Amino acid sequence: MNSFKKGGDNEWHSIDGSIIRAHRHAAGARGGQENQALGRSCGGFSSRIHAKIDAFGLPICFLITEGKSSDIGMAEQLVGDDECDFLLADKGYDSDAFRATLNSKNITPVIPGRRNRLVEIEYDKDIYKERNAVERFFGKIKEYRRIATRYDKTMIMYKGALTLIAILMWIKL
């Protein structure tokens, strides 16, 4: 996991994941597809970027997994030990265990409940409107061709490109 900062605006953090289609030449590196964060699906090879951003829309950390991995599976690792008042996420992160983890860290979860929940989850809808910042973050990094279509065979090279883009985003602030 790459982490970029210790200061900044920690009022809220937002987490999400986005699938990146990999070019066919990205496959074939030593160590196998699992070690290179490439997964096979009906659409071909893909990777998933899990990211956490701050209130300014700047990346704090990200993880790369194979495309078929779930959002909730990386949630606790994304949250880590960073402090914030609120954590914004979509319905893919709705889990009683994850909410309990956030509450134990004194973080208020702003996560809507899934449709099939028996007890409706209450969350601050005004703060939840700020979650679009993470979607805009993914839009910004996908403007870089190297990220939008993964050409890199190894996960280390792909992480390096993401790290460079994150540094460029921080410098522009």
Short structural summary:
The protein is built from 7 helices and 8 strands. It is of the alpha/beta class. The protein has one domain: Ribonuclease H-like superfamily/Ribonuclease H (Nucleotidyltransferase, domain 5, 2-Layer Sandwich).
What does this structure look like?
With 173 residues, the chain is an alpha/beta fold. The protein has a single domain, classed as Nucleotidyltransferase, domain 5, CATH 3.30.420. The chain contains seven helices and eight strands. It has helices at residues 32-35, 75-79, 96-104, 125-128, 132-141, 145-148, 155-172; strands at residues 2-3, 12-22, 39-41, 44-53, 59-66, 86-88, 108-110, 149-150. Strands 1, 2, 3, 4, 5, 6, 7 and 8 form an eight-stranded mixed β-sheet that branches. The two termini are 23 Å apart.
Topology, please?
Layout: E1 2-3, E2 12-22, H1 32-35, E3 39-41, E4 44-53, E5 59-66, H2 75-79, E6 86-88, H3 96-104, E7 108-110, H4 125-128, H5 132-141, H6 145-148, E8 149-150, H7 155-172
Parallel strand pairs: 2-6, 2-8, 6-7
Antiparallel strand pairs: 1-5, 2-4, 3-4, 4-5
